[in-house]
Amino acid sequence: MAEYTLDAETGIASSPTERTANFFKGIFLDNLSTKVNFKNNECIAIGYIEKGKEAQIKEKYFNSDIEYESLTTVVEGDEYQFIVIPKSLDATLRIWKYNVSENGELYSEELLLEAVGTPLLIETQCTEVFPRVGVEYEFGDTKFTIPLMISGMDGKFTITDYKNLVKDISIY
Question: Under a CB-based contact definition with an 8 Å cutoff, are residues 118 and 32 in contact?
Answer without folding.
Answer: yes
